Amino acid sequence: MKQTLQNTDVKNKKVIVRVDYNVPMKNGQILDDHKIKETLETINYLIEENCKIILLSHFGKVKTELDKSKYSLEPVAKHLKTLLNTEVYFSKENFSPDLKERIDNLQPKEILMLENTRFLDVPNRLESDCDTQVAMFWASLADIFVFDAFASAHRRHASTYGIAKYLPSCIGFLVQKELYSLDKLVMNPTHPFVVVMGGAKIEDKIALMENLITKCDYLLCAGGIANTCLKALHFNIGESLATNDMKTIERIQKLMLENKEKFVLPLDAIVGNTYDESYVKYKLINKIDSDDVIKDVGVKTLEKYETTIKKAQTIFLNGTLGQYENEKFANGTKEFFRMLSASNAIVVVGGGDSASAVKNLGYEDKFTYISSGGGATLEYLGTGNLIALENISEESEPIETLDL
Ligand code: 3PG
Predict the structure, then answer these.
(1) Could you tell me the distance, in angstroms and rounded to a whole number, from the CA of residue 276 to the centre of ligand 1?
(2) Which pLDDT value is given to residue 100?
(3) CATH superfamily of 181-373
(4) So what's the pLDDT on residue 187?
(5) Contact 329, 270 (CB under 8 A)
(6) Whose Cα sits closest to atom 9 in ligand 1?
């Protein structure tokens, strides 16, 4: 296990914390504050330990000066203040010599949030390309670095990977909980273990499928993932979403060939097409026409999936079964979530689109564990590694520090 916060001496220290406050926002209103709430345990602990707290996060993809007007973290600082019921100061500067004095003048238990780390990406990608000077500067602001941005742990940024090179570092309570839960529930599951892979981009998920197939008893496919499997088996999938990348298709063919008995594929579908919004038809999977677009699973597929779900002791869900945002194609995902909530199995949800679907459809409290990571969760479960944790020492190892 990586060095943990509870085993690190932070009392009375200046602590710089990387959180992930990359939250959905519209007109300055936060639409979902789950990620912010998940960091409160770490922040409250640091307050109790009498620390001066500096918070760093990215927000959105900042590629132009104009993006900066959309992605300020100031509304997040205000929201955090209401959640903590304590002042959260905000600095529009995140890379300026004045910051050192401002931080030295903080009182113990006070919090200063710095502006979006990705503002430094314009024009030179200093944050995203892990600039050494920036990482060293942020490290110089504090005595200890706490990494609690699980959803950004697959990013090699100055604020994620960089700082830990130059400062004694540990993981926060959220990262600790994520690693523990994913290791225990998904990497070492109680069998029978059913993995459900839905959603769109198979290129992002093939490594995860290759890893989880070795651990699971059934791999149940839907959405763009199932379409690619059907395409690899030479079914006509019409104009449905699937990869055209031959290497990915070959990897899928190999996976299916070697694990025939584990793959569970759709039998039928609800299709639309690209030119007529009112066209919605039920079709068997071997009767798809060339201009059909598969948008949801059909009733026979749901029955088949239910049989598998009933056998499960553990279920890992990634992705949705169809385009649930459109009511005409929402039945598969809704019915499937109902089945999952009726099952006695441990249900773990990972990956951004599935986590939002679970929340949007009101199942947030019905499943065992919802990971706060999107790409990070897939990366961890696919490879067992997260780059941002690389510079954080294991609990027993001595910490190397660099004099700045
Ligand atoms: C996420 O929302 O998955 C994380 O905050 C990472 O965001 P990114 O994909 O913009 O790096």
Answers:
(1) 35
(2) 97
(3) Phosphoglycerate kinase, N-terminal domain (3.40.50.1260)
(4) 94
(5) yes
(6) 375
